[in-house]
Amino acid sequence: MRVCAFCLYIYPKMKTTFSIFLTFFLLSNFLLGQQNDAELLKSKIEILYKNGEIKAINKVLKDDKPFEPEYILEKLNRNIQYSKKKNDQSTLGMTYLILGNFWHRQANKIKAFENYLQTETIARQINDQKLLANSLMNKSTLFDNSVEKINTLQEASEIFEAVKDSLNLIKVSMNIGAAYGVLYEAENRMMDSNYSVNEIAQFKKKSFQCYKKAEQINKHLKNTELEAFLYIYYGEWYKYEKDYENAISYFNKAKEILINLKNSKANTYCILKLAQIANEQTYYSQSLDLLKESEMLAEKYQFNDYLALIYDEYIKVYSSINDYKSALEFSKKHNLKNIELTEQSNNDKMQILELEKNITENKLQLNKYEANSKINKILIFSSLLIALFIGGISYLIIKNKKRKIDSIEKSQIITEIKLKNQQLEDELLKEKIKFSQEHLISFANQIQKIENFLDETKSKFKNIPGSREEINSLKMSFSELLNGQTQIKQINSLTSELNQDFFFYIRQNYPGISKGDEQLLAYIILNVSSKEISRILNISDKSIYIKRYRLRKKLNLENEETFDDFYQRIISNLN
Fold first, then answer.
1. pLDDT at 90 over 90
2. How far apart are CA 350 and CA 113, in angstroms?
3. From CA 256, how far away is CA 251, in angstroms rounded?
4. How confident is the model at residue 440 (pLDDT cuts 50, 70, 90)?
5. Distance linking the first and last C-alpha atoms of the chain
């Protein structure tokens, strides 16, 4: 591998031409083969529809087959309607699970999470433990918190072990290992970690223990796809430790298997990782060829999360070779794709969905209690009639007292459930309000990142040799990008519009308050931390504390009075 890289380095023009030709030739043959396979499978699916074999259709659609995303979505929605019509809860739950996996591949975390919740609800209702474990395992992949992810995966692992599902036990073991790996890398980067050095070292040990467990089980199962995923996980570790030779070897082994299995998304991921390694080794031309290959696959199958990563890697490569015009072009694509993914992957929305699911379950439980209460009343009334013929008036009185006691107890249970439901609805409202506030901050962060990048790139343009016409052309590109951010910047001002009366009062009664002071006060009212404000405003933490101190002086705040106390006091006076 190193000899080939050296030869290609000596003959860059020959290398570039040959690599591009070879890449497009292999990729076109690969896609043509997939197209033929897809048409054959579509014909088989239509035959299965005629026979009403929805479960068999789901088995065909659940894997990463060479179908267009629109085709898969249309068939899965059709299967959901069919299962509902037949009241086949088992098939309905499995279809929701496959639909969740589909949206996960499209990087739409919100829709994926919603479908996994549907699967989980149905699985608990029909007591399908295997389906429940699958929903928990797949749902955990959407969590950003590694500890929460590990806890959910361990719950799924216990169920898979109980039902003796070796295949999914391998998958969940690898996912737990990957989660420990992410936790290990994240804590190593932190300056003030919550874990000790020994605890962080244990994360890596536990990660490899999980991989070895999966590898041991797969020796008997001999599943080639899971073998490829293990190669990817090992390749990730070697890449992190900069052992590029072993990392490239493992990613190529995985890639070879995944191409044969027609697993497009995992194959795209391997190519992207190989491109990153080539960039880190300063093989820029090789990195660009690999990025073009992965970009074509990601665009064909709409792997939007991978497209964002690919665009980001393009920026790094083009910046390294001082091609700032290309870097700017991919920066635009990267920013647009990130905004799109933010809308599809907001964690607060997933929490809202979780709360709505809990409210729905409680409403169902309430209806169940009310239905049982009605049935019990009918039974008690019937018992009373029988008592009139058998036991007489004395038996009737005893039975009537018992009926009243039961009615009181059931009323208490219903009242408690209604109170709990009201609490959940209040919590849901708070989460929605929190989401609205944090969404504004997310846009502010995005604006700041874009402006920082533009400022940095503009300063670099000053050192670029070339004609005045070329520089003016690039300046025009910058102006277009800046003008395109106007609508997003308006969103950042909403924090003031939400409190128009408050800020109007401030301007009238505190003439020493500047626009910058109003912006700082708006962030403080939204409970944004000083560290986050410093990052948004692109100033140091020390400057934030100085600004806060000066703002307190301008507002004449007492030592014990907080900004929130001041805000509540002003709002109360205005009302």
1. yes
2. 7
3. 9
4. low
5. 74
What DSSP state is assigned to residue 485?
Answer: T
pLDDT mean over 348-360? 52
How crowded is the C-beta side of 483, counted as CA atoms within 13 Å?
6
Least trusted range by pLDDT, from 53-62, 190-199, 333-342, 398-407? 398-407
Using a 10 angstrom Cβ sphere, with 0-12 exposed, 13-18 middle and 19 or more buried, the burial of residue 381 is exposed
Domains plus CATH for the chain?
A: 15-142 (1.25.40.10), 348-483 (no CATH), 493-574 (1.10.10)
Instruction: Specify the 3-state DSSP secondary structure of 117.
Output: helix
The closest alpha carbon to 414, from 448, 454, 370, belongs to 370
**Arithmetic mean of pLDDT, 12-16:** 38
Rounded distance between C-alpha atoms, residue 94 and residue 116, angstroms = 10
- Residue 215 in this model has a pLDDT that exceeds 70: yes
Task: Measure the CA angle with vertex 538, ends 534 and 542; round to 5°.
Answer: 45
- Helices 284-300 and 264-280: crossing angle in degrees, nearest 10, is 160
Contact 352, 110 (CB under 8 A): no
- pLDDT at 153 > cutoff 90: yes
CA distance 122 to 435: 28
Alpha helices (runs of H) in 146-263, residue ranges in sequence order:
146-163, 166-189, 197-221, 224-240, 244-261
Q: Residue 262: which region, alpha, beta or left (left: phi > 0; alpha: psi -120 to 50)?
A: left
From CA 296, how far away is CA 248, in angstroms rounded? 21
Q: Which two tokens stand for residue 353?
A: 């969905």
Tell me what the pLDDT averaged over the chain comes to: 79
What gap in Å lies between CA 403 and CA 48, rounded to an integer?
A: 55
Q: Quote the CA–CA distance of 52 and 104 in Å, as a whole number.
A: 27
Neighbours of 265 (CB within 10 A): 17
Give yes or no for a contact between 472 and 430, defined as CB atoms under 8 angstroms apart. no
Amino acid letter, 423: Q
- Here the tokens at position 157 are 């692992």
Q: How far is CA 3 from CA 7, 8, 12, 17, 436, in A?
A: 6, 9, 14, 19, 56
Lowest mean pLDDT among 123-137, 396-410, 532-546: 396-410
pLDDT at position 13, please? 36
Residue 462 sits at φ, ψ, to 5 deg, of -65, -25
Distances from the Cα of 69 to the Cα of 46, 107, 118, angstroms: 17, 12, 21
Q: Name the 3-class secondary structure at 558.
A: coil
pLDDT at 169 over 90: yes
Residue 511 DSSP symbol: T
| DSSP per-residue string spanning 320-378 | HTT-HHHHHHHHHHHHHHHHHHHHH--HHHHHHHHHHHHHHHHHHHHHHHHHHHHHHHH
